[in-house]
Amino acid sequence: MSVVALVPAAGRGERLGAEVPKALVEVHGEALLLHAARGLLASGRVQHVVIAAPSDQLDEVAAALHPLGAAHVIAGGAERTDSVRLALDEAGRVAPDADAVLVHDAARAFTPPETIRAVVDEVRRGAPAVVPVLPVSDTIKQLDASGRVESTVDRSRLRAVQTPQGFALDVLRRAHDAADGDGATDDAGLVERLGVEVRTVPGHAHALKITTAFDLAIAESVLAACAAPVPEGEPR
Ligand SMILES: Nc1ccn([C@@H]2O[C@H](COP(=O)(O)OP(=O)(O)OP(=O)(O)O)[C@@H](O)[C@H]2O)c(=O)n1
Ligand SMILES: C[C@](O)(CO)[C@H](O)COP(=O)(O)O
């Protein structure tokens, strides 16, 4: 089985508010996108990477990825779903042998390799679709239209969903074909509409989505902690 990873990286990063698109924001001297793509390849499960970049930043993105040597860059679309769809089309050209596909946000640049491997391995075990998830730690309230609390939601079966999400390639193609421009906030959401089973594997705190400046500060600390030598006798 050959695995192609699609990395939607064409967002502007409005909520982060940096001077460059979010995927090009640097942490420890390297673009978030480079961290994300390198993590995918470092998992040892991914053979091809296709990146959907802002259409006016293709050269900048290619330059940021230079240390990696192996990635295909295309222009993304107006919405995340459009960027994934365009990358999926490109995957058919650059990785015709692929039968499994990952979709991974550039914004989740520090997802650990073990999470990526867990997703791929579940697809290899026959899952049509797989998402990494974390339990929700806050109490969740449902509000009415005026902002008053209507009810407290049972959180025992709620999960926050991360990326990479893994799919049998034909399943993701069918899901995007059926969506026909009617997007979802994640790709598994499109698969759910087909009535196809979506399995879960444990997510990881380091796979946080860098959305705001606060998230970026957390990500910087995560990377610093991972790079720091572990004192003798302490677990990593
Ligand atoms: N048209 C778009 C919009 C988003 N993305 C990508 O989808 C991922 C998740 O999106 P998000 O974190 O919301 O990024 P932005 O859209 O850039 O953020 P914002 O909404 O703050 O502008 C990111 O890697 C982003 O680059 C994309 O490829 N194409
Ligand atoms: C795909 C995703 O990261 C899963 O949690 C998330 O749905 C992206 O949402 P956004 O609103 O595009 O940031």
UniProtKB/TrEMBL annotation:
Leader sequence residues: none
Residues marked Transition state stabilizer (site): 15, 22
Catalytic activity: 2-C-methyl-D-erythritol 4-phosphate + CTP + H(+) = 4-CDP-2-C-methyl-D-erythritol + diphosphate
Entries under CDD domains matching the protein: CDP-ME_synthetase
Keywords of this entry: Isoprene biosynthesis, Nucleotidyltransferase, Transferase
A biological process term (GO) from this entry: isopentenyl diphosphate biosynthetic process, methylerythritol 4-phosphate pathway
InterPro entries: IspD, IspD/TarI, IspD/TarI_cytidylyltransf_bact, ISPD_synthase_CS, Nucleotide-diphossugar_trans
Function recorded in the entry: Catalyzes the formation of 4-diphosphocytidyl-2-C-methyl-D-erythritol from CTP and 2-C-methyl-D-erythritol 4-phosphate (MEP).
Name the record gives this protein: 2-C-methyl-D-erythritol 4-phosphate cytidylyltransferase
Transmembrane segments: none
Family classification: Belongs to the IspD/TarI cytidylyltransferase family. IspD subfamily.
GO terms assigned for molecular function: 2-C-methyl-D-erythritol 4-phosphate cytidylyltransferase activity
EC code: 2.7.7.60
Residues of the site described as Positions MEP for the nucleophilic attack: 155, 209
PROSITE patterns: ISPD (PS01295)
